[in-house]
Amino acid sequence: MTEDQTMRSLLAVHRTELDERDQKITALEGQVQDQGWQLDSQHAEHERTKSDLKRLQVVATQRADKITKLEGVIESLKLELADVRAQFTKAREAGDYQGTVT
């Protein structure tokens, strides 16, 4: 093999190594890009979850407020019912009750 052929062979080997390296770099860049997209997707999902959580917290607070109001109404109705029962009992005991039994 002549010196010229040796140099050409070495250049061919070197080009092959460079091509393999370039392919490896391209593959790694693709992986990095895919991971970047995955991170973007995960970040978007995280933001949606935070938004959903805030919305659900607002709904839960509104429902708790409604429940508190309804509990107040129930207590008021219980007091009113107790008053009506007491008035009825008082009227019955006084003989003022003219109702019919069904």
- From the alpha carbons, calculate the radius of gyration and give it in angstroms: 42 Å
Biggest beta-sheet profile? none
- What is the residue-mean pLDDT, rounded to a whole number? 89
Helix content: over 70%
The helix/strand series, from N terminus to C terminus, equals H
Q: Which consecutive residue ranges, at least 5 long each, have pLDDT under 50?
A: none
Quick one: overall form? rod-shaped
The SS-based structural class is mainly alpha
Question: N- to C-terminal separation?
Answer: 125 Å
Strand content: under 5%
Structure, described:
- This protein is an all-alpha fold and 102 residues long.
- The protein is built from one helix and no strands.
- It has one helix at residues 3-94.
- It is rod-shaped.
- The termini are far apart.
Topology (elements, then pairings):
Elements: H1 3-94
